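seq:
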Amino acid sequence: MMPFLRVWNERSPFSNPMDLSFLAHGRHWPVHVRRRRDARRATVRLAPSGRITLTLPAGTSRKTAERLLRDASPWLRARLAPVARQLAAPIPETIHLPAVGRTWTVLRRRGAARMARADPVLEVGEDDAAAMAALRAWLKARGRAWLPGRVERLAKRHGFTYRRVTVRHQRSRWGSCSARGDISLNCLALLLPPEAVDHLILHELCHTRVMDHSPRFWETLAACQADWRHWDRHLSRAMGELPLWALPP
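struct:
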């Protein structure tokens, strides 16, 4: 067995969804093991929170799983280093929301997070868990206040119609659009550059005309945003670069 890997359930290593642990930076990072029949190859993914997901084809042995983690060890250690630093100091001193172009100072005080009337200051409690919960609630409120207006402006500019906008706080999905024209957006989008937010919104607005991802959909999107491919790639990796304080618990 690898020195940085320990098995939580020796007799049935893949019976528990968290049966492996990767040791790095003085911490044991849980490895969530998924066995999928449709998986063609084994893959390792790292979430912003430090959660490691090991996806394996059906019938993969523990030895193969350990070899995969061994090969991924340098990459995992490098990617886990900033996560470990964030866990040591989870509450930032400042929060910048690129989408709206504003920065707030975070002060540790007793009581809930709130905006000061004079200066852009967020006051949060001394307890880290409570402070993170307050900052997440603040981020969601900011998203509900700002994102619907941006959707309205882009819809008018490009001639789209929709029914309503809902702002949620999700771990792995930026947005969605229902067949009825209901658009859902993730408040984490406020941490994206303005162009990426516009791409996300335009993507969902295009679904009000074309529900699937057929060539007609991409043609509709390209007519609205010529560099959509660039921002589509940006969105695909941005979720893995978000700060821990902003992620849903």
